[in-house]
Amino acid sequence: MSGAGAESSAESGGFPDVRPRRLRTTPAMRRMVAEHRLHPADLILPAFVREGADRPVPVSSMPGVVQHSLDSLRAAAVDAAEAGVSGLMLFGVPDEAKKDAVGTPGTDPDGILQVALRAVRAEVGDALVLMADTCLDEVTDHGHCGVLDADGRVDNDATLVRYAEMAVVQAEAGAHMLGPSGMMDGQIRAIRRALDAAGHQDVGLLAYTAKYTSAFYGPFREAVNSSLRGDRRTYQQDPPNAREALRELALDLAEGADLVMVKPGLPYLDVLRQIADRVTVPVAAYQISGEYAMVEAAAERGWLDRERAIEETLMAFKRAGADLTLTYWATEFARWLRAHS
Ligand code: PBG
């Protein structure tokens, strides 16, 4: 038998008979034997749009990322589509004064997210899969992903009612797919039923199946001007738990999820792999704001090679079983892939 264990024979004088390095000798050789390949269609671009902005506003903790104006968002959508990116996940940033306890801007047909969905859909049509964040944290004055009860706790079932209303308004504004990111129990089923009842059977659901409470969401809070008081530990998953993700997975699939996702990305590759091994629906990873910021900050200091680091992280998701990755580098990286292929 050849292979590991048979090497170092006496005849070869103690040198290896089997040499894995042979397949690493040239770029063409390495390219030929690569087990995974990245493609622009793997990528989905998350983007922020700010009400009333007449130009893009930089997000200081995410160098290169902005809160778009409607015009710059339309241009970014065209760029993403031209680069071959598959989808756009939109987050709205309403006027501070319009936020309230129940998140009224989220269900107002003229709320910024709905206005932006209509604008992007008019600009690029079906060239991108247009997705909307179905969550209350961007639109509530307390910054929680749900509505609060009299004791200030996030009220699961009252929140489901709000999500169902938001979902219909977002579908009517042109979203192809919704991403409920609030981790309320039963959210996929509640939204699916509301969409179907309103005639939106074709609008899909990207389930945030395993969404962990994470320090790496930090820069996102700046990106959406979040006013969060407290934390999200009573609804997002606790970092020690992996098996629990499989329970959430079973629920999301039973409730009608079309895609399932793990978030954050790099700290939860083990969860991603376990989910990818078990499902027949496409699997996504979300490389979140803090993951983006870490690489950008270290690269800015010259501490690592930016392009190589980005590529390596995106390959990690692919290797761990993701079909799709949401990343703030989507358009830029899709362009590199085109230039280098
Ligand atoms: C909640 C939501 C968050 C993110 C996406 N949707 C913030 C949170 O859960 O605290 C984070 C995305 C990122 O950090 O890039 N609507």
TrEMBL record:
EC code(s) of this entry: 4.2.1.24
Q: In which pathway does this enzyme or protein participate?
A: Porphyrin-containing compound metabolism; protoporphyrin-IX biosynthesis; coproporphyrinogen-III from 5-aminolevulinate: step 1/4
* Pfam families membership: ALAD
Q: Where is the composition biased (Low complexity)?
A: 1-14
Q: Which family does it belong to?
A: Belongs to the ALAD family.
Q: How does it assemble?
A: Homooctamer.
- PANTHER family (alphabetical): DELTA-AMINOLEVULINIC ACID DEHYDRATASE
Protein name per the record: Delta-aminolevulinic acid dehydratase
